[in-house]
From TrEMBL:
Lineage, uppermost ranks: Eukaryota, Rhodophyta, Bangiophyceae, Porphyridiales, Porphyridiaceae
A Pfam family assignment: PH
Record carries keyword Thylakoid: no
GO molecular function, one term: ATP binding
Name of the protein: Non-specific serine/threonine protein kinase
Binding-site residues for ATP, renumbered to this chain: 148
Keywords (A to Z) from UniProt: ATP-binding, Kinase, Nucleotide-binding, Serine/threonine-protein kinase, Transferase
Family matches, as InterPro entries: Kinase-like_dom_sf (IPR011009), PH-like_dom_sf (IPR011993), PH_domain (IPR001849), Prot_kinase_dom (IPR000719), Protein_kinase_ATP_BS (IPR017441), Ser/Thr_kinase_AS (IPR008271)
Domain Protein kinase: 119-306
Length: 306
């Protein structure tokens, strides 16, 4: 299928912002209140909390700071990092340039990882085994988004699918793919901020407006779906769960504008001399929509999306 230049232009390299908590610890020097001298201490960053101890083995912290809305700044020449919060300002000094960059990046990541500083969560859109999806308002642009909220404490297999889904979603940008804007990872819960598509899924449209769904409109919808699949395959991604419920409609009027969503079963199908493109063996998908090669367990690849 020949590519549309307009679609190719839109399908540029892209990666959604991934914000996560960082857990690190080590010795630094803190600026004291008296004489502004520097005193060695052990510092531990555990997600949104920064704690300072006299020694590594000390159980009680000298002080703790919540990094929620903290202002993080640094002076590389002095190896100085300043953490300013409403209750306290801490000034720390790294041992060397490498440690300075590591600590500055970690503190900035943790300070910017609260979704409520960027979005106002709203009504429930849907719920499933993965978690739930809620409406949200971007506090800066005032645009409506959809936020998929997923539990990171799931079992090992589910966590593997979750990581893969996020890795796939954050790199996709195409007119026929639901776009991911932000990902917030706080070690317990994953918030994936996505494009809000208000037309419902294709299953609902077929069920509610079957009489209006002419052959021409069906062909238009198929063309949109195939453009999205073509883009995925060009990036060596197999969706593996193409079904009406995973096809969203931007509008409710015909012809429909289509966007593919839900990449929980997606995987990469890169071919090599030792690994053909039908190397995937996992029994995966939705009953009644699964391709025959998945059911027979003979290996599958790109064709299962068609």
């Amino acid at each position: 299928m020949a590519g549309d230049p307009q679609d190719d232009a839109a399908a540029t390299e892209y990666a959604a912002r991934y914000r996560q908590f960082v857990n690190i610890s080590g010795y630094m020097r803190k600026q004291t209140k008296i004489m502004k001298s520097k005193k060695k201490c052990f510092v531990r960053l555990n997600g949104p909390t920064l704690s300072c101890y006299r020694e590594r083995t000390t159980s009680d912290a000298s002080w703790q700071l919540s990094l929620r809305k903290a202002q993080i700044s640094g002076t590389e020449a002095k190896l100085e990092i300043r953490v300013a919060t409403p209750s306290r300002t801490a000034v720390l000094f790294a041992e060397n340039a490498q440690e300075y960059k590591k600590w500055l990046n970690a503190l900035e990541e943790s300070a910017a990882n609260n979704i409520e500083d960027y979005y106002r969560l709203g009504d429930l859109i849907g719920k499933g085994s993965y978690g739930e999806v809620r409406e949200a308002i971007d506090l800066k642009s005032k645009e409506t988004r959809a936020v998929k909220i997923m539990d990171r404490t799931a079992d090992t297999k589910e966590l593997e699918f979750l990581r893969r889904e996020v890795n796939v979603m954050r790199k996709l940008m195409h007119p026929n793919i639901v776009r991911t804007y932000d990902i917030f990872d706080n070690n317990k819960t994953l918030y994936v901020v996505m494009e809000y598509v208000e037309g419902g899924d294709l299953f609902e449209v077929i069920a509610n407006r079957a009489a209006d769904f002419t052959e021409q409109y069906a062909a238009d919808a198929i063309r949109e779906i195939l453009k999205g699949i073509q883009y995925l395959h060009s990036r060596n991604i197999v969706h593996r769960d193409i079904k009406p419920e995973n096809i969203l409609c931007v509008n409710s009027a015909f012809p429909l504008r289509i966007k593919l969503t839900d990449f929980g079963f997606a995987n990469y199908a890169e071919a090599s001399d030792n690994k053909p493109q039908n190397h995937m063996q996992t029994f995966i998908g939705t009953p009644f929509y699964m391709a025959p090669e998945i059911l027979t367990g003979k290996g599958h690849g790109f064709p299962v999306d068609l």
